[in-house]
Amino acid sequence: MIGSSSRHSWLRLAPILLCLAMLNACSTMGLNRHIDATLNSPEMTGTRWGLVVMDLTGKELIAIRPDERFAPASNTKLVTTAAAFGFLPQIDQPSVRAGTSLWLVENETGPPDLILRGGGDAMLSDAPDCIEHCLYQLADLLLENNITSINNIIGDDRLFPDERHAPGWSWEDLQYYYGTAISALVVDDNSLALEIMSDPESDQIQLRWEDGDAIFPVVNQATITPESFDDGRKRVRMSRKGGSNSLRVYGSLPKGTQSYVQNIGIEDPALTAAQKLIPHLISRKISVTGGPRALHRELVLADEPEHRCCGVPLIPQPEGAYIGMLSAPPMLDSLTVINKDSNNLHAEVALRRLGLVEGAGSREDGVLKMQQILSQAGASKSAYDFTDGSGLSVYNRISPRAMAKLVLYTEKQSWGTQWRETLPIGGVDGSLEKRFKDTILEGKITAKTGTLTGVNALSGFLETARGKTLVFSFFANDRPSDAPSARKKIDAVLVDIAQRY
Questions:
Q1: Most exposed of 142, 228, 388, 434 (fewest Cβ within 10 Å)?
Q2: How far is residue 411 from each of residues 20, 98, 288, 403, 421, measured CA to CA in Å?
Q3: Are 183 and 192 in contact (CB under 8 A)?
Q4: Is 342 helix (H, G, I), strand (E, B) or coil?
Q5: Which of helix, strand or coil describes residue 259?
């Protein structure tokens, strides 16, 4: 029974509580109207928006098309990296298993062949200023073992089946670094650096490969024009036909344009790695009588989990005598590159390392682990489909609610803090370095970006003006080709949410 004094206190509080509830309701209605006006402005007509915002209890504060499926672009990397944290062991420790190793195979006549065996390490470098974890350190291993003559150098990437690109990748992306071929043997992100220079003494653009990258033949058809371009856009293009290593450069630049570097994707990473090792051998007075070769493992039906009726495919072991290994850096380093810099190749290598957990390193075995982490997060199977680990595939789909559930799930895991630290910080670093500056969210939003033709995405965490942490997933799809990028609209809405909560 409620006492008289308690009843009177309640009666005095009731109008106040009612007013507060009405204020909150009015504030929410006002925010929703403002969001609607921002997203559906005339210049964005045709764009399809999806947004879910949750607090850390899982309560949904905002839901716009929460269960419709959207192309996530590089938001896909959130799923790939969460799966890596969830299923790969000791990601913060150097890895021998993923290291790059050397093996000698004797020939009946002449010097032995050298096998350069990839272990799924995406961090090996051949940069001129490389200090640690460098390709030349493998050449040093030969010197340490008193090996003075080699026949062929064989790049071996058979740890993963030969799936250099995923279904749904656009062909025009494959010639650039962000669409380069995938392999268990990676050097310099499987790309070659070409410097493009406007020579004031010539009417033709000058091209120069960085040290060690002069592997592709180049047809230079690019010219210099005397007029400047008001929009500041570069008008030099690259063309490399599928299956070819020959590069054609065409277009024009104004005279006096500052030189810049274009990173070119490669066709056969294992072969290119073998080519890149040769100069290091020769500089150490190790003679090379043969040339570069490559070993690949063909994809088979058993690499698809649903067709694995007779066991996991066998991964061929390297032949010959073991010489030595360069251990891989911690997987955490690569996962940070994936999320901070949105590196596609590292994401695809991580996907295939996930594929080794229960399979033989196939893309589909890796996708299975992505599905498992989403299931653990409580996402419905009908809410998503994935074909790759990077987000380049136009076949990928996920709902805002499913992605928000995944982000919320990570917060409750033992590895959640580490995973969150791999994400870009607004106005600070990575792909968010230039966004949210001089707003309430500068330094207060950690989230993964996503961009494809007609697609913008952002999902992660934000801190509000009142110090509350919210989880969100924001997608813009079907943006017309003549509409502006949706990023400014996304950023404006998130700033508004941060101010009002």
A1: 434
A2: 30, 28, 53, 13, 12
A3: no
A4: coil
A5: coil
d(CA 158, CA 154): 12
Q: Which residues contact 221 (CB under 8 A, 6 or more apart)?
A: 248, 249, 250
The packing angle between helices 400-411 and 76-87, to 10°, is: 30
Residues 284 and 147 sit within 8 Å (Cβ to Cβ)? no
| Phi–psi pair at 270, nearest 5 degrees | -65, -40
| Tokens matching residue 242 | 């599928």
pLDDT in tens, 329-372: 999 999 999 999 999 999 999 999 999 999 999 999 999 999 99
Short-list 464, 470, 458, CA closest to 500: 464
Q: What are residue 102's DSSP bridge partners? A: 116, 324
Angle between helices 136-144 and 269-283 (to 10 degrees): 50
Element containing residue 282 per DSSP (H, E): helix 269-283
Structure-token pair, residue 464: 């509000």
DSSP codes, 29-41: HHHHHHHHHHHT-
Model confidence over 27-39: pLDDT tens digits?
456 678 889 889 9
Token match 């190793």: residue? 101
Residue pointed to by tokens 């419709």:
68
* β-sheet bridge partners, residue 459: 448, 473
Q: Residue 105 pairs with which residues in a beta bridge?
A: 113
The Cα–Cα gap between 426 and 437 comes to: 7
Burial 369-379 (b: 16+ CB within 10 A, else e): bbbbbbeebeb
Whole-angstrom Cα distance, residue 333 to residue 85?
Answer: 12
Give the integer Cα–Cα distance in Å for 97 and 362.
Answer: 17
Tell me how many degrees the CA angle 104-108-110 measures, rounded to the nearest 5: 75
Average pLDDT over residues 381-389: 98
Return the pLDDT at 17. 46
Q: Are 474 and 61 in contact (CB under 8 A)?
A: no
Which pLDDT belongs to residue 23?
Answer: 43
3-state secondary structure of 143: helix
Q: Work out the average pLDDT over 36-43.
A: 90
List Cα–Cα distances, 121 to 36, 190, 397, in angstroms. 46, 12, 28
- Give 54-77 pLDDT, tens digit per residue: 999 999 999 999 999 999 999 999
